[in-house]
Amino acid sequence: MSSNERVEQPIKFAYWVPNVSGGLVISKIPQRTSWDLDYNIKLAQIAERAGFEYALSQIRFTAGYGADNQHEPVSFSQALLAATERLKLIAALLPGPWNPAVAAKQIATISHLSNARVAVNIVSGWFRGEFAAIGEPWLDHDERYRRSEEFIRALRGIWTEESFTFRGDFYRFNNYSLKPKPLAPLPEIFQGGSSRAARDMASRVSDWYFTNGNSVDGIKKQVDDIQAKAAANRHSVKIGVNAFSIARKTEKEAQEVLAEILKHADPEAVKGFHHEVQNAGNASPEREGNWAKSTFEDLVQYNDGFKTNLIGTPQQIAERILALKQVGVNLILLGFLHFQEEVEHFGKHVIPLVRELEAAKKPVRAYA
Ligand SMILES: Cc1cc2nc3c(=O)[nH]c(=O)nc-3n(C[C@H](O)[C@H](O)[C@H](O)COP(=O)(O)O)c2cc1C
């Protein structure tokens, strides 16, 4: 895909499935969000009507940091697919606990059950305590990515080849024939992570690169790096960025909500989370991946979503989304405080402004 085509396509929207309790912030602020099935079914139905194309369900094996209960993402995604018509569900898979033979089989079946609306997000692990709790060996940062890359190559091979043979350091397959294959189009393969190893993997094998929230400049640096390498590898990859959105009538009102979230932050939980995420980007050889530079305030949102600054009036938010699009972003992944009502509001008040700005094809000003 050329850089022009990347910018011409309408930007896509996804939301984080709140399949964990406590919502998407480590704060005791009251939230009208629930992790249960009924709430999530209604949310998914609202989201597909509101113009969201994807929903991402996350994986964590152990509770903590405000997320005390969490549903498993593949089975939870299947339940949401059964209750929707157009929404695509991206289910997180964590190599280590998941093995590619099981994952490929499971996702192929869900592709048939959902008319090809399932996708996967390959995550590489940041939570050492979680691996210890379930008796999984913990690999060094870049080794985790080597395993993830083999996992992705194995998934794709199983899904596309009649007789799949693979000799990796982590996985082996011998003339394996999966039947049925997933329906076309094949499940898209997303990945989460921002370190050099993550970017290199994206430039070789992933369909989508998902990164934490960041400034437009911070995102641009990642996009330029990935797309230059992807071009050299003749690989096509799209970019998704996390953001926590607070859209209100005035910027002041939106900033007040952010201030309330931060005021009610749970300091012990944020510090514990900070301690654990040091196993991610900061543990990479170049020490610059996710969370390597996050402040206390940034970490109140699990994936640095405040940094993207989609906080303000619908017009301000739409302009900021366009600025991200202009540096090569294809999808915005959104978290909200009160999911059902804010997803609906976003669809009604922000997405139409984004579409107007896209149609106008004028450059929007960069923002701080
Ligand atoms: C959008 C997004 C979603 C993620 N979802 C999960 C998840 O569900 N479970 C998980 O253990 N890690 C998840 N991660 C974490 C990544 O897989 C990775 O371990 C982390 O971002 C650190 O990567 P880095 O060291 O390459 O920067 C997610 C990351 C991003 C950006």
TrEMBL record:
It comes from the Bacteria. SUPFAM superfamilies: Bacterial luciferase-like (SSF51679). Residues 25-330 form the Luciferase-like domain. One of its GO terms (biological process) is alkanesulfonate catabolic process. GO terms for molecular function: alkanesulfonate monooxygenase activity. Keywords: Flavoprotein, FMN, Monooxygenase, Oxidoreductase. Pfam families: Bac_luciferase (PF00296). This is Dimethyl sulfone monooxygenase SfnG. It comes from Hypericibacter adhaerens.
